[in-house]
């Protein structure tokens, strides 16, 4: 079974279905939403390094999870989507076990979500990935618009905000990856809903009653509503401008760590060059030149200077690359007080797997602890780099000046102190 072609065929099949069965009312559960869920599923699956077959299950389920909206009532879209996915996989000659896994993943997204394994958890989290993203506000508006269009009833802003707030506060991601990655933005979305709800409830008494009112009163109320909506849009744009760029922060951490590791690798390479070069010089001195010192006593001092230069250079180069391993143990008190960094192997290599797993879970549930550990990890990488490059600079200076002095010494010895026959 070829994994890649099946996933590609699934995506093309779903896109074709949306083109052939357009639903203008589906402003939220449309192809864009499906593509966003597939992207989220790919991101989560990549983190867990799924096997090819498991990756196939997750991505096909992500493509088909909302296909049921195109056929049949919305209340049964999971069942219809699962049936369409099974039919597609059967046409692709996928094994029955794979078909059943895809069906189970799609059915796990039915509210309330109830995944039974990692693959189902990934699909469920991908389906609601936007709850912890900066796109939540616009997706929520589209969801409200679709709900009003399908039901034919207008939903009040207060009722919609209250419903969303209850849902977000009661929702929990299933995978550790999403719990850590999306926690901060999800908390910000909840805080935004609370502020919005308080403001709307505070403004509610000031709205004019337009039931059985004159056309002029209705027109006035509509204008006030439009003004208020425009003001809300303006405030939302302002919030977007001042919001912290979480993705930018994560990119910063990743790039900084990568650059530090690259610089460390460069430092090790420079040290190896110094060690190899001076080892060759020493071997030549010991095997060739020292044998002729009895016949050329004037070369004793220059040879000694060159030998000392090479030895000291090697010493400093070795010091620059010599590893420093700590005891590698931590206590639960260290974790609770956030006094250790579990991202560095030197702090946990002496611990058991259960203790390390517990410590990592505690860190992943605390955003401040997690980001603090990342900052600490980058800081100590920089400290180690500074130490390495300082020793390397000394080694290169010794080699450069020692080589110059040695060459001058050899020239002086040969010209001004020749051997008398």
From TrEMBL:
Q: What is this protein called?
A: HDIG domain-containing protein
Q: What is the lineage of its organism?
A: Bacteria, Pseudomonadati, Bacteroidota, Chitinophagia, Chitinophagales
Cell membrane keyword on record = yes
Residue ranges of region Disordered?
204-244
Q: Which InterPro entries match?
A: HD/PDEase_dom, HD_domain, HD_phosphohydro, HDIG_dom, PycTM_dom
According to the record, the segments passing through the membrane are: 271-290, 299-319, 369-386, 398-419
Task: Recite the UniProt keywords alphabetically.
Answer: Antiviral defense, Cell membrane, Membrane, Nucleotide-binding, Transmembrane, Transmembrane helix
Q: Which SUPFAM superfamilies match?
A: HD-domain/PDEase-like
Q: Cellular component GO terms, alphabetically? A: plasma membrane
* GO molecular function annotations of the record: nucleotide binding
Q: Give start-end positions of Basic and acidic residues composition bias.
A: 219-244
- State where the protein is found: Cell membrane
Recorded superkingdom? Bacteria
Q: Which CDD domains match?
A: HDc
